What does this fold into?
Amino acid sequence: MMTIEEKLRSLWHQERRFYHVRGASRFILWLIAMLAVDFIIDWGILFRVNSNINIGLLLLIVNIGVLGYVLWNEWLKYLKPFDPVVVALEVETRHPELASVLVSYTQFPEGTRDEHASPELVEAMRQQARDLTRTIDFREVVDFAQIRKLLMVCACITFFFLIISINWQAHTSSLLRRLSGVDATYPTRTQIVDVSGDLMVRAGDPVIVTVGAEGVIPEQGTIYVRSDESGSDWQTAPMLLGGAGSGRPVFEQTLDEVNEELLYYIKLGDDRSDLYRITPISAPSISAVRIDRTYLPYLGREADKTSALSGSVLEGSSLVWHLTTHTPVDRLQVAIGEKRIDAVQNGDNLHWTFRMDKVKSSFKYTFLWTEGMSGKGFEYDDVEHAMEVIPDMVPKVELLKPTLNALATVNKRVTIKAKVQDDHGLDEAWLTYTVNDGEEKRIPIEINFKGQQSGIIDFVWNLKDTVDDVKPDMNISFYVQVKDHYPNGESHEAGSVRRRLSVVDAKRYIDWYQEELSSNLNDVRRAQVAEEEAAKALKQLKIQEGVE
It folds into this structure.
């Protein structure tokens, strides 16, 4: 026969079993419901829009929060420690005929001493409690029939869930992996394979995106493309069946002139690809340039530098280009007409140099880049630059005196005056003459130009002292000749216009001189007459106009 204490503890154990069964059933129902909701959200929405996999972790956190709340409110909070008084009250609630005897029994355990109660009365009360509860089964207070429907529903839903999980094992596995933050995909009837993936293309070039398909093959697919800029909208284009690759159908779509970074994904049937990126590789560009210019020694100019890719330079100069690019470059060639010059790396693939020595003529050039960012070696042309080579000009000579051909005697002293100039400085001067169109002869003109770019030559030429055996009936032609400092200067000599002297006897020279003098006097008289007439006309005009 069980004692009252044993019956109360047995009832407490029965209650805990009841709460365990009920709490576990409700928890399982909530767990299955949450998994169903997770599947609908993840498979029906998140997976199809290729959302961030971390959203699965967010769903898991929500699940833990909800299930934690259910676990406490439907299960754990009912699991209280054993308290005989509380259990006794539950029995008396079911059996009111006990009239608090059982509660009093638990409040006055055996051996209790109370100065307000007689031990005999306490023992009598305890005996009465034993007599009244002898035939009562305390465990009947707990009625498992209350949760029969709950258990049946829980069993059915759990069985159905197990069947679904077994039939859709791949879906269930993918759901659980995605909830744990693992990048997993759900099985589909159509399987996307061999996507082009992340692509790098030359800026401005078209790109062909391809994708293979297995399983149920649709008639066409769809590619979704948008700019990598935030807030840009997705644009769609059909992907048409283009042939077969590796024994499977291949769909493709051409994107024209890719000039900005793009994101794309593909839908074929019920499958959807990951998100991929198309990166256009722009042509290398120059961030800094320095051109060192070294001049020929005869010019007397210090070497200098410029940052202009187009400009001018003196003939014969040597040029060295120093280029720095924004992005790595695998190879740099310089195209000058049909000629190609390979630039040299200067330390790394961001710094390049090339040179041209003693340039002779103007030229145009352009850079041929092979970029070094993508690893694909894309090649690019650059804009055309022009370098004008300024040649060393031939000196200029202007003969000022004599102004005309003339007659001369053997004692003639000819006054010669000439204006000379050169772009980089004069060097020497001569008087060059021929007798009767014979061999040319030179007479050095003593003048120190001191590298000046202009000057006046003024000297007197004594025919008798320089021309051998000068005599009447000789014809002497002459001109002033100069040269500059250009190397191999014969190519940079220049002469004035020629003048001719006809050597005559003294009588013929005097007659000619008198004729010239008379002609000049007549010219002067005519000029005087014209001036007087003009003065009279002006005076008459002032009178007519009333001008004093």
Residues 53 and 182 are 7 Å apart (CA to CA). The chain has five domains: 4-179, 190-281, 286-390, 396-504, 512-548.
